[in-house]
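Lecture 7, part 2: worked example. A protein chain together with magnesium ion.
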Amino acid sequence: MKISQTLFVTLKEEPADAEVRSHALMVRAGFIQQIAAGIYVYGPLMWRVLRKVEAIVRAEHDRVGGQELLMPALQPRELWEESGRWGRYVADKILYHFQDGRGRDVCLGPTHEEVITNFVKGKLSSYKQLPQTLYQIQTKFRDELRPRFGLMRGREFIMKDAYSFDADAESMAASYAVMREVYRRIFTRCGVRFTPVEADAGAIGGSGSEEFMVDADTGEDAIAVCRSTGYAANTEKAVSQIAPAPPAPAEVAMHREPTPGAKTCADLRALFPGLPLERMLKTILYRAVWADREQTVAVMCRGDREINVVKLQNHLGCLSVQLAEEKAVKAATGAEVGFAGPLGLQADVQLLADRSVEGVQGFLCGGNETDVHVLDVWFGRDLPQPPTYDFGLVQAGDLTRDGQGTIEITRGIEVGHIFQLGTKYSESMDCRYADEQGKLQPFHMGCYGIGISRTAAAAIEQGHDEAGMIWPLPIAPYHVMLIQMRAGDEAQDALAQELHDQLEAAGAEVLWDDRKMGAGAKFKDADLVGIPLRVVIGRDAGDRKVEWKPRVGGEVEVISADDVLGRVQAALAAASA
Ligand code: ATP
Ligand code: MG
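Predicted complex, written out as structure tokens:
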């Protein structure tokens, strides 16, 4: 393809709103254009990348017998009421929903469990048809609170979603294991470095789930990993063993102390330098919302630890949990924010604690009075220890749960998520098959998502340098960039045309820079768009000599034009091995 005949427009300036490299570079290279927050046009070069990711995804699903279909983006409220998810998705403000011209509620699908379950109902009717896996590649809509990072978190984005239907839990686990392998193959073939991690199932529900994380420092997800045991989990889900509480001090009666303005553990450390953080217990107030009620919940944890709200929300089984607002804090404690404690909270506040408080005695806590804390407090003596659960956020340096290794925190971009759903949707939507005895049983389902557009962006988050993008060959918009130094030069024109035709005939995709402009600008553009293989046709064209100049790695080499095809084929073969 000749660049002169394509919509190839690069920008000198970085977009002002880009927080990550992939976003900035894709905009500069003309791959994407934002038309509103989180809503993008995928330009021709971007679309080629997305179609390549899709092709790999399709091939790997088809290889294990997945069947592709396409479901509607527009969905009626009734299906979401059947599964019971309308309320939560509306409460989370993630759902685009509105009334159609006849006054009926509809939404734009953020995910498709309801539609697929409704689709197979009555069609998959016998155990003899099982197991089956169906998938689609489609645009999804989510009114993300913070659309950002370009294609990483859009409000309209492309997802592959697959759904498996099995007779029982054991066979569901087998289907899930097949898909886990499919995911490994997909991301390996896309040429990204990734880590599968244990994950929280969130609003989708179900039992086991894992996420596939592309390793990147700019990733939104924090991951707990242990190099020696191989443990890897999203910190939303991760568990660890924390250092035990320090020994109790000599027992004295508890006493209230003035702590003017001391609202944080750091402030309190300055006031009481002898008191370790492990003997300062924080009491954090949250507002939990269920479908039919709201409540303030107070959670205690050790001063050196943090609360993981995902674990808290799962424990409470509520629709959302947020830090309580100032008004709610004052109502619950009678004090300004920063002085909450377990003694003397309003009766309607539920008091819970993280496991980290177990065994801590002689501690400091908030006094539920502005500018006052209580010291030398003992569980058992001064108040009962509240019920404890694992609400803790793992931290770097914690031991793994089994004590065999140490946890590090790294970052990643979630590109895929697989779930064992169980019977959540088949039960609620009454979707059953007849077993060998003719008895009706609910399906055991799995669901499996891949962010197609996010995967492409993640590849660039991982593959770029100062000058621009560096695409992995398997998903690059073109395989070869043919840079012709002087368009109009007879020998160069002829050789470029010959190589272009020869490579294309052999199945290599070539972007030929035939523009009448300076070589410097052409090299800059070539660096920016990041096509991995590059051939430069210049002065020595008459002698059939060209430069072999890959986007990264390797010196520039002068080679014979007759060796170009072999080089390209070798690179393509290596990338698909
Ligand atoms: P996140 O925690 O990042 O919001 P999620 O848990 O909501 O993701 P799923 O519902 O599991 O994501 O969706 C499947 C896949 O779709 C994700 O693994 C991710 O790759 C992609 N995805 C999810 N939300 C977005 C988005 N707003 N923009 C682009 N891709 C997304
Ligand atoms: Mg999300």
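DSSP finds 14 helices and 31 strands in the chain. The chain has a mean pLDDT of 95. Keep this in mind for problem set question 3.
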